[in-house]
Amino acid sequence: MSDGIEQFIVNFSNETTDTSPIITMGGEDNNNNGINGSLNENDNNDKAVLSAPAEWILIVIGIIVGFVIIVFIIRKIIQGPSYWKNNRIDDKVVIVTGCNTGIGKETVLELAKRGAKIYMACRDPIRCEAARLEIIEKTKNEKIFNRTLDLSSLDSVRKFADTFHKEENRLDILINNAGVMACPHMLTKDGFEMQIGTNHLAHFLLTNLLLDTIKASAPSRIVVVASGIYLWGRIKKDDLMSEKSYAKIEAYCQSKLANILFSKHLASKLEGTGVTVNCCHPGVVKTELGRHLIKNKTKAFLNPIASYFLKSPRAGAQTQLRLALDPSLEKTSGYFYLDCIRAPVLPKAKDKEMMEWLWNKSEELIESVQKNNNKMNIEEVNNKKETTMTLETADEIKEIKENTEENENIEVDKNKNGDAIVIEVTNEK
């Protein structure tokens, strides 16, 4: 009986473990393959559709990144090199003209960090004081002084020099930085065309008034801020003051060429004295100097672009800082610098005959102003109780006496330095 049960179990196992293949309908299998093929094809199409905009997005991003990198490199090139030496000039006496904004202010800021005693010579004492206080706060150097200097007035130049001589007996560095650019036709207080009068003649007089003190402080330096735009300049011997015709860019170019001629000629005159004279081109800098070039509406549009593609004031100050500071330039004189390196100049910027002519002409123009200032206007004297003036020659004293009315008393005496005549005219009416 047990044998029968075992046989039944074996037969049942064989039936339930049958591995025969399952037969399906051929059409159903084909339909499944078709559906699967269609799904795969749709997936591929979707991937192709999605990949096209993705590729363009990557291309656009690549272009933008490349453009930004190129612009960054161009900006770094435009900014130029920096003066990197960290030498100090503690207690050295410095004058910087036109320094309440722009590259002048940046120059004072850097010199103050290095310990200099600085006289800020500016036309606007209020703006100068604001800049002075800001620099003191940033540098903790309190040896920064605000002094008024209006370069459109030779009288102001003389007063500034007189005041400085009373305060100091040395001057280690003079930086003639101030200037005007492409202004409408205007005259200085002395009747000179504004650009040649301010950029050249006023600095010519200031430098000569301070020269004895600079020489006594040797080794000392004079830095003249000129411009590469001198390339288009020419000295108009027959119309230096642009009285026959005036073009603001032409007048500016002339004044910058005059800066270079003056600095080179002065360097030759000071050879062997321990005083160096060099000039420089600061670059195309985003400052207030160009305010006369662009109208306000255009300026509002161009400002963002200018901010990026023009030098910053700090970058613009680097070349004159090197000329003022670099120990390796202590004996280098008579050169033109651009982006902190010495650069060649055109023959017209080193024409010795033109240098001599311009020097003599500048002296002549300044002397003529002084003589005119020394001549007394008799009508004004008659309306005043007392008038005091300084005269240089006996002929001028004689002229005053001849034109003085009977009711006027004249007293003649030397001034305290004994180098000029003081006349006092008193109206007894």
Any idea what the shape is? globular
Q: What is the structural class?
A: alpha/beta
Please describe the biggest sheet, giving its number of strands, its sense, and whether it closes into a barrel.
Answer: 8 strands, mixed
| CATH H-level superfamily title of the largest domain | NAD(P)-binding Rossmann-like Domain
Query: What would the average pLDDT be, to the nearest integer?
Result: 81
- What is the CATH topology of the largest domain? Rossmann fold
Order of helices and strands: HHEHEHEHEHEHEHHHEEHHEHEE
* Cα-to-Cα separation, first versus last residue: 170 Å
| Share in β-strands | 5-15%
Number of helical regions: 13
Name its key features.
14% strand, Rossmann fold, 3 domains, disordered N terminus, 13 helices, 429 residues, alpha/beta, 3-stranded antiparallel beta sheet
Write structural notes for this entry.
The chain is built from 13 helices and eleven strands. It has helices at residues 2-16, 26-79, 102-113, 125-139, 154-167, 194-216, 248-269, 296-309, 313-316, 318-325, 352-374, 378-382, 394-402, and strands spanning 93-97, 117-122, 144-148, 173-176, 220-225, 275-281, 336-338, 341-343, 386-391, 408-414, 421-427. A hairpin with a 2-residue loop joins strand 7 (336-338) and strand 8. It is globular. The model is unreliable at 1-35, 385-392, 404-408 and 412-429 (pLDDT under 50).
